[in-house]
Amino acid sequence: MKFVVQVRLFPTPAQEAALADTLRLCNEAANLVAGIAWQTKTFRNYDLRRHTYGRLKEMGLSAQPAQHVIKKVTDAYTTVKAQAKAKLRKPLAKPVAFRADAAQPFDDRCLSWQTAERTVSIWTTGGRMKGVRFGCSDEQAHALAAYRKGESDLIHRDGLWLLIATCDIPDTEVIEPDGFLGVDLGIANIATTNDGEHHSGKHLNAVRHRNRELRRRLQAKQTKSAKRLLKARRRKEARFARDVNHVISKQIVTEAARTGRGIALEDLQGIRERVRLRRPQRVTLHSWAFHQLGAFIAYKAARAGVAVVHVDPAYTSQGCSACGHIDKKNRPDQATFSCMSCGFAEHADVNAARNIAARGVASWAVSHAADDAA
Hints:
Layout: E1 2-10, H1 13-40, H2 45-59, H3 63-85, E2 104-106, E3 111-114, E4 119-124, E5 127-135, H4 138-147, E6 148-157, E7 160-168, E8 180-185, E9 189-193, E10 198-200, H5 202-221, H6 224-233, H7 236-259, E11 262-266, H8 271-274, H9 279-286, H10 290-304, E12 308-311, E13 336-338, E14 345-347, H11 348-373
Parallel strand pairs: 8-11, 11-12
Antiparallel strand pairs: 1-5, 1-7, 2-6, 3-4, 4-5, 6-7, 8-9, 9-10, 13-14
């Protein structure tokens, strides 16, 4: 299983200047290669290397950084082509362009890690630079030392220097679950389990509403100070929501592992197109990080050996978890479920989570019966 470790570099002023020059030169070279690729209609790595490798060496790039620049360009064209084919963007009308501080990949020939000392040695335009300090947790350091594999990306973002490394952890055998922990994802409550545990979205939604109003006022001002404040705040909300999702996903996976259960989640793909909400809730839905939360649960569960299944969410909020009766009238309001058939009453999100848990059990049984038959 692959996951990403992000660490922050703490370069000295001289080291920071060298890193900035390196990123600037690499991206100047990338723009040159992108232009040549566009003019010659050459988008394959090996073919493009014949047209550009000598030019990059003349610019001052070493062999490995030059090849990484060429690969970065070909990967960018491949991505854009795939997005255009999927109608996610318009086809290119001009060469791809790279910012002066766009990320640059480094392999083990250009970058070495000294995790015990919390330093790296990295190639720069001024030569090999050793002893660049970085900060990370003990868990991240262990993952880097034991499982880091492949390239690492150097990134300059919001005044910070970061290294993004990929770790390849051996798969953990999934434990046969003794039942499933159903998780209902929503707006009023971020996540609710069939055990009755509520992870309230009230605080997160309040923060998002406050940030949304602040952005609106700052965008209306159009002053230099307003634009400067907007730039400083642009990732603050995303970092806050990401932290909340990490905390919630860890609690859910820990509880499932402790009780020997799997985790059943709703398959929410296409929810924005399916769901019809009142106007005040639409902005909340469209800025909601439910996919991120689901992804966090999935990868944490994989590391813990906890089974995860995705089930059909249809009518989980209208169906009775006691008798199975489905009726819109079972939901007199957002928070209440009261069955019109058997009289069963429960918090609406807990009832939905119980339905999801039951579907998780059925889905697991069906999939493993098919595996046994094969």
